[in-house]
Amino acid sequence: MPEFLILSLLFVITEVFIAFIFAAIAQIFYHQIGLNFKAIFKGIAERVFLFVTLTNGYTQALTFFSALKLATRLKHEEPKADLDGFNDYYLIGNLLSVVVAIAYVYTYQHFSEIHLFQLLSGK
Question: Of 15, 55, 57, 107, which residue is the least packed, with the fewest Cβ within 10 Å?
Fold first, then answer.
């Protein structure tokens, strides 16, 4: 199986898994049931942005990403009672997103060294 196909399948499977993880986290903090497709697509866009920039060696993109997230957070109004829940959800979501993007970069850069991918690609 070609490297691009393996990486694409890994991306799709991981993103579906993350969508359900975030839905579970949202249910814990917000008692919100279901998938928020707008948030899912924003998360995918964030991770693709981080993947592309980090793969090309632009580590300062993490700072830019953090500034953008902070700027959008400053406009968010949350009732005082729900503020801690939102802050926890926001922090967990951002950390998970960055960790997944870094894992994508690692997987892409070390594809030939990962035994499972060697088996799948027939090498």
Answer: 57
